[in-house]
Amino acid sequence: MRQYFKNIFIAIWTILVGLKLTFKHLFVRAVTIQYPDVKLKLPERARNRLYVNIDDCIGCRQCEMACPVDCITIETVKALPNEDLGVTSTGNKKRLWVTKFDIDISKCCYCGLCVYPCPTECIYMTDVYEFSEYKRHNLIYHFSNFTPEEAEMKKRQVEQFELEQKMKKAKPAEQVPVNNPESGEKKS
Amino acid sequence: MPEIFNMLIASFIPLLFILIYAVVILWVEIKVASHVQDRLGYMYTGGFHGIAQPIADLLKLLTKEHITPANSDKIFFTLAPVLVFASSYAAYAALPFTSTFIAANLNVGIFYIIAITSFVVIGILMAGWSSNNKYSLLGAMRSVAQIVSYEIPTVLSILTVVVAVGTLNLQEICEIQKGGISSWNIFKYPPFMLITFLIYFTASLAEVNRTPFDIPEAESELVAGYHTEYTGMKFAMFYLAEYANMFLVSGIAAILFFGGWSSPFGKFLSSPGWGVFWFVSKGLFFVFLQIMLRWTLPRLRVDQLMYVSWKVLTPISFVNLMMVGLWAILK
């Protein structure tokens, strides 16, 4: 019988204790923030969207090899001897046209392994984390300055140059007469 | 003809009150819930702290499709929400909002309210059974068991008040408690009236299926209880009825124990206009208390629920009734 009344008393008492607690919390400052309006400051080394400063890229493919999920695709074309690509901001000489530098950000696992090997520090993580898209192909970022057509043209140019080089190398060996006066006469 | 017109107005005022109150309390409930949990809740709709969100919710519910399950009992399925809301709305007829306004000044006002609110049970059972869903039926059965067993302590505690004041007319009960805070019923026959109030408030929480007695709707166990299968406006009717019931039991608590429309300062601020203010604010205070309890207490188990009703509230309210009756006779 004593226990019975004690239980009732404890029930009422604990309800009051609980009410006091919840009532206090009515006036506690909210711990949540109004996200799109207010954003939390990211940690200093937070890893989010990748960015490539293509002007500094020397096309060494270190990042492509480091990527564990193969989300980086690079295609390069050798520069012709008469073309000067200049130097990067770190002073490295650029020798290759980077005709394609695609990052499929939907595959990216934000490990940051591509960032460390880069000799010119041109690939790095930014603090942008809002980049959702409605179409999946929009998540493939093209960092190269070349359009596919331009890249194709560049490739053909180099192929032609290489062919010419080969021809030049081959010509002296075969000793083919360049000017044939006879054939010229026949034509006329 | 003017009599009918008067009656129409008299019946329209409580409906208008319920609708406005439901919109406000929807917002308050969400806001209290989020602030208790240190969140912000609605912040956008309508500018200041999402003030227009309940209106947006209501419009959404109004435009939603009505889905009637294929194997449900179609007549009862459509009838149930109407019955549930109608019974809680009908009970408002006997609530004295102020000294000059009461929709129906009945001699047996409180008895009428107890009788008419029993229809809610039928509506709930109807909804649960007709939707042909296990969760709905389970919820409805739990609800009926709960309401029926908690009706006894509720009625016994109301009876205690009736013994103390000697009338069933709610307007007269308010009239008796007119002389300021000291003449409120809760301070009469100490401490029995206070215990009566505690019993009434606890039991009324169970009557309106609020936490900690929300086992009929237990989200984590029963999806949503008896209104699982309802959509659109029919679903909204259940919600409206629940909020209407919340104010109804709070209003009765205010009338029976805290003087209803009478001012706590005696003659000061006791005109009929202020009467509405006092009654509504007293009622809303208990609604607020119910909301706070919802976010404070965990849900009871079914056996604990029955324990509280049959082994605690009912015997104590019996003893209470006898003590107050004896005191009233001896006085």
Structure notes:
Chain A has 188 residues and is of the alpha+beta class. Chain A has four helices and five strands; from the N terminus they run H-E-H-E-E-E-E-H-H. In chain A, the strands form two sheets. A three-stranded antiparallel β-sheet of chain A has the order 2-3-5, covered by helices on one side. In chain A, strands 1-4 form a two-stranded antiparallel ribbon. Chain A is rod-shaped. With 331 residues, chain B is mainly α. The longest helix of chain B is centred in the first third of the chain and has 35 residues, at 2-36. The termini of chain B are far apart.
Widest beta sheet: strand line-up of chain A: 2-3-5
Secondary-structure element sequence of chain B?
Answer: HHHHHHHHHHHH
Number of helices of chain A: 4
- Give the biggest beta sheet of chain B: none
| Total of helices of chain B | 12
What's the N-to-C terminus distance of chain B? 49 Å
Q: What gross morphology of chain A would you assign?
A: rod-shaped
Major beta sheet summary of chain A? 3 strands, antiparallel
- Low-confidence stretches of chain B are none
Structural class by helix and strand composition of chain A = alpha+beta
Report the C-alpha radius of gyration of chain A, rounded: 33 Å
Q: In brief, what are we looking at here?
A:
The complex is a heterodimer of chains A (188) and B (331). By secondary structure, chain A is α+β, with helices and mostly antiparallel strands.
